[in-house]
Structures are given as C-alpha cells and as structure tokens.
Write a structure and sequence with these properties.
about 140 residues; 4 strands; elongated
Length: about 140
Amino acid sequence: MGMFGAIDAAASGLTAERLRMDVIANNLANVNSTRTAEGGPYRRQLVVFAPRSSSGTSFGQLLAAGLDGGAGVRVVGITRDEAPPKMVFDPQHPDANADGYVAMPNVNAVAEMVDMITATRAYEANVTAVNAAKSMAMKALEIGG
C-alpha cells in the first residue's frame, strides 16, 4: 500500500467513525423520547461497518499472496436495535398505558458513552495514521530534494 492508500484507508475510518459518533449523539439526545413519528418510543440506532475492498480477493487470499489488503472501512447501514423498550411505572405520564407503565427508549446512556469513547479513540487513531503518512511523505521529499 502506498502513501495515498494509507491516507485513503484512514480517511474512510474518519468518515465512518464520525457517522458513528453522530448516531450515538442522536441516541443520547432521544434517551427520553417516548413518542416518535412511527409511533412508540425511540429505538436505539447502530452503525454497521464492513471492510472496504479494493479488489475482489478475500483477506485470506491477500495474506497468502503476501500483499497488504487494507483498503479501509465503509458503512453498510444504520440499523435499529430491536431490544424491547424499558417499561417504567409513571401513571402521571401522558404516554402511560392503562396499567400506568410508560414504554421508554431502549437506550442505555452509560453504554452509549462507552461507545462514544471508543469511537473517539478510533477517530484519533485514524488522525494519527494520516499525520504519520504526511510526515513520511515530507521526510521522503527532504531526502529527494
């Protein structure tokens, strides 16, 4: 993989992790949303990643051939967590059912914060990779010049 391939792979990680952080922020913003346009409480969303391939060969085939197949990551989609909503007893709530329970979103703020920290660290790692590739390119220019 050349210098620009390394920057391209890291840039794909930056884009993917940024989307992941946006989705996590959306989950946290809706932690108390009991009503949505679709009806019912907000459902937690998850980002699904997949490796980005520059060729049709598998990772195992690339390893066997001794080639570096790192081409980055891509977002396959954003899915909804199908876990059931949390039922909270609050008979005064306008969305309470006949038994006094309110269906709350299936968002756990602590888990979302842990996910945010891991996404931030992955983002920082990709920034470091871009900066390292830039530094190597600058050193190569100094050697050649």
